[in-house]
């Protein structure tokens, strides 16, 4: 019963996001809409913060599912690493455009007073891990090229690169890590343009434009085409 109520509460929370946005999410209103005792809902979500966290984790997981599914299909189809990178980006964009309010919850304006707990970061990392798996596989296949810049990046970037090189990006060249950080921000800038309707001026086929941008960013990071 608790799992059923949890699923219903999250569905109502998503509905409220569409109507009111994250700031308008009201736990008492969720209980009223479900016709349940607020105390019963409180046992699952002790406060609004907990309901928000569950919705955020759900959104990150849904995006991660889409990214991982796109990658798995690309691998199964025998696509080269650069095309796998594009496929993951397409999966991220496709989910985001189809679920704009959930996307806004995780990549929109910061919610005042909300402090994200670790479980949101774990769920949020799934999309990044999908892209990083492309880079690691490309490296093992000789399809990832390191091109150190003549001028080193600013000190704060070097610090970030060192931290990542000792963690989830261990084994990748420092210049690839630095470029991946830039590509990551470009990906979500492009996705945000798509979600919020700012990409129409770039052509009649936004999917083709975004695929082109993902291809350019993949090459910028160091992915090289292996097929003729």
Automatic annotation (TrEMBL):
Keywords: Transcription, Transcription regulation. InterPro entries: Homeodomain-like_sf, MT1864/Rv1816-like_C, Tet_transcr_reg_TetR-rel_C_sf. It holds the Pfam family TetR_C_33. Residues 85-217 form the HTH-type transcriptional regulator MT1864/Rv1816-like C-terminal domain. The keyword Cytoplasm does not apply. The keyword Transcription regulation applies. This is TetR/AcrR family transcriptional regulator. It comes from Streptomyces jumonjinensis.
């Amino acid at each position: 019963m608790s799992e059923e109520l949890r699923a219903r509460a999250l569905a109502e929370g998503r509905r409220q996001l569409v109507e009111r946005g994250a700031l308008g999410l009201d736990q008492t209103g969720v209980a009223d809409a479900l016709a349940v005792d607020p105390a019963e809902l409180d046992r699952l979500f002790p406060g609004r913060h907990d309901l928000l966290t569950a919705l955020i984790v759900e959104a990150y997981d849904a995006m991660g599912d889409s990214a991982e599914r796109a990658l798995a299909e690309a691998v199964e189809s025998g696509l080269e690493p650069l095309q796998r990178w594009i496929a993951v980006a397409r999966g991220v964009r496709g989910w985001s455009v189809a679920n704009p309010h959930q996307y806004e919850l995780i990549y929109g304006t910061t919610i005042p007073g909300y402090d994200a707990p670790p479980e949101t970061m774990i769920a949020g990392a799934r999309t990044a891990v999908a892209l990083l798996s492309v880079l690691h596989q490309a490296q093992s296949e000789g399809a990832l090229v390191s091109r150190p810049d003549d001028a080193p990046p600013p000190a704060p970037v070097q610090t970030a690169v060192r931290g990542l090189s000792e963690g989830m990006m261990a084994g990748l060249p420092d210049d690839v890590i630095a470029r991946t950080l830039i590509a990551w921000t470009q990906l979500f800038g492009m996705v945000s343009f798509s979600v919020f309707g700012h990409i129409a001026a770039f052509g009649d086929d936004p999917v083709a434009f975004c695929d082109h941008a993902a291809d350019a960013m993949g090459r910028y990071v160091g992915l090289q085409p292996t097929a003729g």
